[in-house]
Amino acid sequence: MASARHVQRLYDRQAATYDARTASRRLDALRAALFVHASGDVLELGVGTGATFAHYPGTLRSLTALEISGEMLARAQARTANLPFPVRLVQHDYQTLPFEAASFDTVTSSLGLCGIPDPAHLFGEVRRVLRPGGHLLALEHVRPPQAWLGLLSDGIDPLFEHVVGCHANRPTPRLLREAGFTVDVLERRLAGLLVTLRATPT
């Protein structure tokens, strides 16, 4: 299982070219359709270079952007200048969230939940920092529902984890339900490999 230090080194090395390699109109459209539902005080997990900032509504009260890679956060800083809401950048391994209970109205993540070593622990932390009535909004690649694609993702997972720092076969919606969330899958793309979801603590 990838350590936090391993993931940090991976993304520190990739930061300079990350945006050019990962730019995708399809992903941007999914993020925009999902993050429009964010409100109040927002915590984003794994903010990377801040490519998501433009997809938030201007009515946010605040955005706290959490990221393990200092090199990625340095690039995110440049994207905060003209935003209509205050942004706080925090470098931290988000397996354990360094915030008081009931600090946020919305927690968001864009392809950031698939690399966490202990999902159940993180989802407990998400529940802890959410205020009553709050929810998690996430765009994730997940284990495909088709049997043969699922087996393929199982087979490539060790290499995927080593090279990319996350899991190819993580069943995130099911893990959230097991952690006590009601999960609404809003969109499925690429034969179910890519999903957007809203998860609300029960």
How would you characterize this protein structure?
The protein has six helices and seven strands. It is of the alpha/beta class and 202 residues long. β6 (181-189) and β7 form a beta hairpin. It is globular and about 45 Å long. It has helices at 4-22, 25-35, 70-77, 119-129, 147-164, 172-178, and strands at 41-45, 62-67, 87-91, 104-110, 130-141, 181-189, 194-201. It has one domain (4-201): Rossmann fold.
CATH superfamily: Vaccinia Virus protein VP39
Question: Termini separation (Å)?
Answer: 29 Å
CATH architectural designation: 3-Layer(aba) Sandwich
Average per-residue pLDDT, rounded, comes to 84
How is the CATH topology named?
Rossmann fold
Uncertain regions spanning at least 5 consecutive residues: none
State the strand order across the main sheet.
Answer: 3-2-1-4-5-7-6
Helix and strand composition category: alpha/beta
The CATH C-level name is Alpha Beta
* Radius of gyration, whole Å: 16 Å
Can you tell me the number of structural domains?
Answer: 1
| Order of secondary-structure elements | HHEEHEEHEHHEE
InterPro entries: Methyltransf_11 (IPR013216), SAM-dependent_MTases_sf (IPR029063), Thiol_S-MT (IPR052356)
Keywords: Methyltransferase, Transferase, Ubiquinone
GO molecular function: S-adenosylmethionine-dependent methyltransferase activity
Protein name: Methyltransferase type 11
